[in-house]
């Protein structure tokens, strides 16, 4: 796979024109729809702190979720090829974004907190070590400039 490129096409469409476009700061909704060929649309908006709809995903949610999902998919792959049987996985991940004086800002960190359940007979030490390798391989984590920490919790079934 070395040297191969992969392309990802999406369309983001603003759906928040309430009749007068962006004629004023409060005159429009921040609602949007994210689409990709052959996939269901994702309803999006701004963070509620920026006049967005709290019932819709915002870009900040999706960035944290992308980091979490990428880590999980690498981790499950590495466990499968290394004889570690995972029976459950969830990650209550969180990200911190700081605004600056100009109104812009950036993420300062994301913390992944995978909660992994192993089948009887799986090696917990190996399961922990594979989180480090998954983090090193994650395409999304390798693409961001802020720290992504992994605080895994491993338990056995029963």
TrEMBL record:
Pfam family, one: OsmC
InterPro entries: KH_dom-like_a/b, OsmC/Ohr_fam, OsmC/Ohrsf, OsmC_Ohr_Peroxiredoxin
Family annotation (Gene3D superfamilies): 3.30.300.20
Source domain of life: Bacteria
PANTHER family linked to this entry: OSMC_OHR FAMILY PROTEIN (PTHR42830:SF2), OSMOTICALLY INDUCIBLE FAMILY PROTEIN (PTHR42830)
Protein name per the record: Organic hydroperoxide reductase OsmC/OhrA
Organism: Azospirillum brasilense
């Amino acid at each position: 796979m070395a040297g191969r490129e992969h392309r990802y096409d999406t369309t983001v469409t603003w759906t928040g024109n309430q009749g007068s476009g962006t004629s004023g700061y409060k005159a429009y909704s921040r609602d949007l729809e994210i689409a990709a060929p052959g996939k269901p649309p994702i309803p999006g908006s701004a963070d509620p702190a920026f006049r967005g709809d709290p019932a819709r995903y915002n870009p900040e949610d999706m960035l944290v979720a992308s980091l979490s999902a990428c880590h999980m998919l690498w981790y499950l792959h590495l466990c499968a090829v290394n004889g570690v049987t995972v029976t459950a996985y969830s990650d209550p991940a969180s990200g911190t974004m700081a605004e600056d004086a100009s109104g812009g800002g950036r993420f300062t960190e994301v913390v992944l907190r995978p909660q992994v359940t192993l089948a009887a007979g799986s090696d917990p030490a190996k399961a922990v070590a594979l989180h480090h390798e998954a983090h090193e391989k994650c395409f999304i984590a390798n693409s961001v400039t802020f720290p992504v920490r992994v605080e895994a919790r491993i338990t056995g079934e029963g």
